[in-house]
Each structure stands twice: as structure tokens, then as C-alpha cells.
């Protein structure tokens, strides 16, 4: 006897798409509402540790501490400038102690001045580089003309008389052994007036007045006519004034 076999078959379920399977499993996608942005992911926590603070350096000048100053350097003896004391002028009253060339020039000047003719001084006054200085200011005039202009008369007689007066006094020897060596008349020009003896004051007042002497004392030195002759006999200057 044949028995009929009934095949048991599972009901056939319809096929689903992948997206439908996800929905079926409860994973429902939600679309963001239009106009709204998805909130950004939480940013990583920033490092809350602040910057490393370095200790402040000590002050360059410590006001609460004593500061030691460097000791002053004492200059060595080699660096110090040593000023040599000036040799005082030698006062001489004996003309024989002057060099021969100096005595000769003095004698020629005395002879020319005693003649009363100032022109006789011209050959003694020199020319060019050897011309005698007769003024403290520059002038285009010759030395004889300049001396005439300094005289109280038109012929220069007063200047000749002054020449005789100062050459009759003692003289001073200055700058011995140097290029500036000179024999100077009168010696008052090289001697402090405060140190004059009574006889020397008498000798000075034969050249100037008492009023002139008082002004010289106030000024501090002799400032009337003085004459200089070099050791080789050159008449170097004959000037007056400060």
C-alpha cells in the first residue's frame, strides 16, 4: 500500500534589502533636521597645565649689600710730568761780564742815541729776518718810523733819551744755555718789583715816575721799555707795554 508523503516545507519569506534588514533589527536611522548642523565631536581636553615659570634673576645692583669700588690707580712715576723749576735771571751790574759781542752792540746803541740823530739807529736795527722788534703789534712801517711815532716829539729825541737811561742800569742774563738766551735791560724787567731794595727803587725811578711805579706794582711787573741783545750781538727787541 502506498502511503502518500506530504513534504513539509517552511513558508517562504520575502527577500529584504540590506537597508530593510537594518531597520528590521531595530537600527533606525534618524536624519538630522534640515537647517541644523550636527554638533561637533567633543574636543580633546586641553592641557590645563600653565607655562613653566622661571625664577627671576638676581638684580645687577644689590641695594642692601655693600658695593666695593675698584681702588683708584695711582699713576706711576714715569707717567707723571715733572716740571723743571725755572732758573731765576742773573742780575749783573758789571758790563764787563757780558760777552764781547753784547758789549759791542750796547756801545754802538749808546753812541747813536747820544748823537741825537735817530737815523743812526737804522743800520743797528737790521733788516728782514734780523730786524729788531720795536712794537708788540704788527706794523708795515720801518723800525725807525715806528720809534718816531712812539716818541713825544717828531724827531724821536725822547726815545733816544729812554735808550740811554735803560742802558745805564744793570742788566739780566736769562735763558742761559738755551736758544732763548738773552741779555735784557733794565734788569727790572726780569725781577719781581716787590723784591726791589731801596737803592734799586731809586734806580727805577730814574726811568719812570712814581705814578708809573705804582701802576706797575698793581699790574704785577715792569712794563716800560726794555731792550734785548743775543749772545752773538744781535739787537733782538726794544719794546714797551704789556
Automatic annotation (TrEMBL):
Region Disordered: start-end pairs: 19-89
Biased composition (Acidic residues): 70-82
Full protein name: Uncharacterized protein
Organism: Shinella kummerowiae
